[in-house]
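Hi Y.,

Following your request, here is the sequence exactly as I used it, all 147 residues.
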Amino acid sequence: MILHCRMYAGCAVMTVKDQVRDICSDVTNLPEEMESIISSRGGLDALKECVPEKADLVLEARFFHSLSDPIRLQILHALMTMDLCPCILKEITELSDSKLSYHLNILERAGLVVSSPRKKWRIYSLTGKGRSLIARGMPVDRGTSSP
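Below is the corresponding structure, written out as C-alpha cells. Let me know if you'd prefer a different format.
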C-alpha cells in the first residue's frame, strides 16, 4: 500500500509502509508501464525529438509571460474594441505612466500589440496574433477564484 509520494532529485519516490523505494532512478530503470508506453511511441529519442530545445522556447515563454498578468489582459481586451492612445489605456487600467509603459513593452515584445506614431501621439493596436488570441477567448469560471 502506498502511503506517500514525493519528488526527490527529479524522480518520484514512494514510501511503502516504512520502506522507501525509487520508482525511476534513471532511464535504464523505468517502470514497465512507462517503458512500454515510450517504446510504443518510438523510444526515448523520438520523445526527445518532439520536445523543443530550451533555446527555441524563449518566444513561447515570453508569450505566456505576457498573458500572466490581469493588467495586460485588460489592456488586450481594451485594444480589441479599438486602437487606443496611452492616456486612455491609463484611465482604463488606473496605472501610472511608468507601469503602463512596462506592461505595454511586455505585450509588444510578445508580438501581441504594436504602436505607431500619429502626429505627436503613439497609438496602440493589437497585432493579428493579439486579435486572434482575444477573439478566440479563454473559458473563465467566474464562480471560483483559484484555477
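The first strand starts at residue 2 and ends at 8.

Thanks again,
Q.
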